[in-house]
Amino acid sequence: MLLLRLKEGKKFCDSFTDFLRNRSKLEDDYGKNLIKLSQSGANIDESGSLKASWDSIRKGTEYVGNIHCELAKKLNDLLDRTSKFREKYKNERLKVDDKMKKSQKEKKVAYENLNKAKKVYEQRCRETDQCQELYDSKSSFTQKEEERLKRSLSKSKTYAENSDSVYQSSVKILEDCHKKWASDMEEACQVFQNLEEERIQFLRNEFWIYTNLGSTQAVDIDEKYEDCRKVIEKCDHNYDIDLFISQKRTGSERPAFITYENFYFNTKSSLGRSQFKINESSIDEGDYTTIGQVRSVSSSTLSNFAKVLYAYDAQSNQELSLAVGDVIEILKIEDDQWGIGILNGRRGAFPLNFVRR
């Protein structure tokens, strides 16, 4: 039973080493896959707090992958210690086991020799008794027969005495073997108990280390994810949109519409207001156009309307004074600053940034 117990203990150690080996491989493979996964999406064109959140997720994934790889190394160290202990446990067990088998074998041989010696001894005793009975049963016999019987009786007694000596010696040998076997068994039991105590204590400590490794890993991973959560909490869509606008903006105003330009009303103008000139034939200084003229101009140019947003005082007779809420009929867009239109029956130039089309 003791040997069976030790063999089962060895199987348990083997199972634990296989468990550690497989767990270490799983952790290493999983960690490497996480590290590889963390590299994906690194070149995505994103900015702002969402980009920071995504980077924290990727870096957190890489960190977790490294933790799993580090755990795999620590599990390998645990595996090495367990394997060495298993070999030591096995060698100590085999050493005592061999000694016990040898002692048991000696005891078995001594017991078999004892049985043989006992059988020979009993056989010799029976032969001696038979010779003695034969000798005593005859009242008269010849001298030759008497001498023959005496020789047989003497020989039988000698054989019986020798077998008795061998038998007693076998008993003594068996007794010594039994004492030695009992002593070896007692010693083996003590060794086996020590081995079992050491095995249980060792595995208990290894289980404790294994559990602490898993617990520490879980805490480290949770702390990293907590850091990720703190970054994600700062993710704000308003901030990201404002940042995108500030980085990618192309201007504060919409591009001007492409308008129709009548060849006969096309006048050249410079970019500055001070150099802005209007064809005298189209606008007479201080004159107002008639309804017929307005219709004539409107029919020969692209007409649309704009609402005045800000008041404007004309700086010359060629410009229109604007009041908030007025509606101007736009006749022509000279450039990105000035246009020509009709307001209250009068034709003139006006600033485009004071109106909304």
From TrEMBL:
Coiled-coil region(s): 86-120
UniProt entry keywords in alphabetical sequence: Coiled coil, SH3 domain
UniProt domain SH3: residue ranges: 301-357
An MF annotation (GO) of this entry: actin filament binding
Organism superkingdom: Eukaryota
Transmembrane spans: none
Domain F-BAR, first and last residues per copy: 1-240
SUPFAM superfamilies named in the record: BAR/IMD domain-like (SSF103657), SH3-domain (SSF50044)
A single Gene Ontology CC term: plasma membrane
Name of this chain's protein: Proline-serine-threonine phosphatase-interacting protein 1
Species, as recorded: Hydra vulgaris
